[in-house]
Description:
Blueprint: H1 3-43, H2 53-88, H3 95-101
Amino acid sequence: MSDTIMFMARKLRHQVPTAETRIDDALIAVSSLMTTIVTARRDADRVQPVKGQATIQRLAKAQMALIDASGGVLRVHGELADIARETAGLDLHECPAVAHADSAPQGGGAVAG
C-alpha cells in the first residue's frame, strides 16, 4: 500500500472523530442556549409567553440542522471505513479507540471506521 494512502488514512482517522465531537459540542451549546432562553422567558415577570417564540423556533431549527449534520458525518464515517476496507485492506473495527489514541497532531489520522 502506498505511503500516500496510509498518510490519508491516518489523517482521516483523526479528522472524522474530531468533526463528530465538534458537532456534538455545538449541539450541546445550542441546547444550553435553548434552556437559558426558555428559562429567562418563563422567569421574566413582564415578558408574555408569546415573546421570543419566533426566536425559540429559529433556534430549534438550528438544533435540528446540527442533528442532521451529525447524522451526515456519521454516515460519512461508515462509508470511509468501508472504502478503507475495500481499497486499502485496513481493518478498522477499532476505529473510535484508535482515533482517540491518535489525537496527537501527526499530520492526520486514518480512515474513520
